[in-house]
Known about the structure:
By secondary structure, the protein is of the alpha/beta class. It has a single domain, classed as Rossmann fold. It contains 5 helices and 6 strands, in the order E-H-E-H-E-E-H-E-H-E-H. It has helices at 12-24, 38-47, 79-88, 103-116, 127-136, and strands at 3-8, 28-34, 52-54, 69-72, 93-96, 120-123. The chain has a 6-stranded parallel sheet, with helices on both faces. Helix 3 packs parallel to helix 4. It is globular, with a radius of gyration of 14 Å. It starts with a strand and ends with a helix.
Amino acid sequence: MDLRVALIGYGTGGSVFHAPLITSVPGLRLAAVVTRAPERQRAARERYPDADVVDRADRLWSAPGAYDLVVVAAPNRQHVPLARTALTAGVPVVVDKPVAASAADARSLAALSAVRGLPVFPTTTAAGTATTGRRRG
């Protein structure tokens, strides 16, 4: 069974690195893409017709258990809040660089990860997404 991956952010990081890698790795399936920009929504729908494309990350949480992994490739200031929301929803998360703007925010995220018993994987390349997905599988 494939891991269902929700990708938050479809700018350069999401569209050029994470989405193509997710779809090329056996055992991973791009299940959702989150992007607000209408032109990026169209591009994601054209390239990944089997993925749900939504305009807000909070739409991911309306279907508990729909995703096995969240990849955060949104603007940097959104990394920690989005990762916290994913963990609170019970979903492991891969966070693009930088994970957080401060060491305190990173420690806070690590603490929530420990409390929830769910991993947070920081990555500096899309290859981290594929490696992470294979470890959980």
